[in-house]
Structure formats: structure tokens, C-alpha cells
Model the fold of this input.
Amino acid sequence: LTEPSEKERNDQLKLQNFLCADCGTAFGGEATSNVLLKTFQKTSEILTMQKPRRCHYCVQLLCHNCHTNQTALLPFRVIPKWDFNSKHVCKRCFTFLQNNFNLAHYDLRKIPREITNTPLIQQCANLRKYLIRAALIISGCTRPSSAIFAQDLHTHYFQKEYFYSMHDLQLIFTTNKRESNPASIVPGMSNMVGAVQWMAGQNVSNLFEMLSAKLVTCKKHIAIDCANCKTRASMPCSICNIPNPVFVIDEDGTQCRKCHTIYH
Done:
């Protein structure tokens, strides 16, 4: 993402031919050759304090009908600067940014490591990895109980490990400011009763808690509710020979890419 450069107001007005960038309303200046009209327009601007407003997303100048001082996060300041200060934008850009606010356009790998190498972001990235593993298992399930996951499986949380929406990044930022130490990863398959109790006691107010709640729901389906998913997602560890099965979406579970053996 490249941040556009803002020109001096007079230079920008000349570039726009002294017209509003959206509706074409004349601000006064070279756009009209009528001296009386030009004087009237400038007097009106002074008396009503209606000087053109800058949109900090498209960097153009607009009239007060097209720019009502709405504010929004600017993606090119969030990535890679991690700057979440809202800026004034015009109506058109505000609508565009809001329509894309929940879409996963932004690659976490493009953010400097000194920012992403924090406990909360690492925890969220880890949860996303397990959610994608869970999606691969549940998407192949033919049992009616898997229908509740149909909508979730099509979201970016279950499909794209590194891509986040602007809303996701904002939740991470605000949670980082509020909490120095995020909660630990969700309980494993070996204690699913505890996991369900853990989920029930959570006040889901940030991205980590939301992802954790989704993963607990997936784990409950795979380990308890669906024999089909349980069979496909687990097997006894071939290394340590512990009788309890190890699950591919558990913290201590790993699956060989070649033979698909699951082990600790």
C-alpha cells in the first residue's frame, strides 16, 4: 500500500480546476471567468467558513456536501506504519472504506516484524492455523451436525492464514493497548469438557477470544459430536504409544504431509 502525497491547497485547487472533486461545484478561482461570481463565491466561503475540505484518502478537495467530516482508518497508514488514528475522508471514500472494512485484504506478513512479533498477534496467527486445519476436516463431513459450520467455513478465518480485515487489525490494536498478556491458547482435545466450560465463561470482546470460541466449537464437533470427523482427525501417536488419540488440530498434534500419520 502506497500513501498518496498531499499537495498544497492552492496547487490541488488548480489541479482540480477549482472544482469539487466529486460534484463539480466551483470553489471560485480560474474555473470561472465571471469576476462578480468569483467574488461572490469567495465571500460566501469566508462568511460561512465553507472552504474546501481535504479527503485524506484520495487527497482531493471537496465541497461540504461531498465531505461532511466523516472519519475512517486509512489502510496505507495501518500497513505498514500500524497507525490507527482516524482521518477525515469524503463521503465517497468513507463508503468505500466501510464496504471493505470486514474484507480480508491485508497480509500480516507485510507488517514489520517488530509489530507482529507480539504475544497477541502470534496467538491469533496460531489460532488461524488450527482453524484452517479444522475446516479441512469439517468441510468433508457429510453428517447433518456439520451444517452449522457452513457459513463460517467460507470466511477468511477458515481459509486464509495470513490475511486479515481492517476490522481484525483494529481489534488486535485495541486489545494490545488494553491487555499486556492475552489468554493462553484454548484447551486441547484431551480436556474437551474443560474447553466447553472455558468457552462458556468467555466474554468475547476481541479477535483472540472470537477465534478461540470458533476453534472450541470446531473441536467439540470433531472430538465429541461427530464420529466421522473424530476418526479422520485422530489416531494413536506412533511415537510415544500413548493410548489416548492425538488430534491433528490439537496444540501438540502434527501430521506428516506424505503419509498423513498424526503424532505428538
Q: What stands out?
A: Confidence is low (pLDDT under 50) at residues 183-204. The two ends are 40 Å apart (CA to CA). The chain is about 40% helix and 10% strand.
